[in-house]
Design a protein that fits this description.
Layout (H helix, E strand, L loop, with lengths): L1 H46 L13
Length: about 60
């Protein structure tokens, strides 16, 4: 009886650890993706030419 209780406790503990580990890995990957997205947005904004001071399209 005590062995089954201990085994059940160990299995629950292992399941909780695996869940916490999976959550931490997912959070880390989401943080990396967020950082990459912010970098891409900043690069895209830097590539846009400054607006014309004359109020009309001088490139047209």
């Amino acid at each position: 009886m005590m062995e089954s209780i201990a085994a059940a406790s160990m299995s629950m503990s292992q399941l909780q650890f695996e869940t916490a580990y999976d959550t931490a890995v997912m959070k880390k990957s989401m943080d990396v993706m967020k950082s990459q997205a912010e970098s891409l947005i900043n690069d895209m904004l830097a590539a846009v030419p400054a607006p014309s001071q004359y109020g009309f399209d001088v490139y047209g």
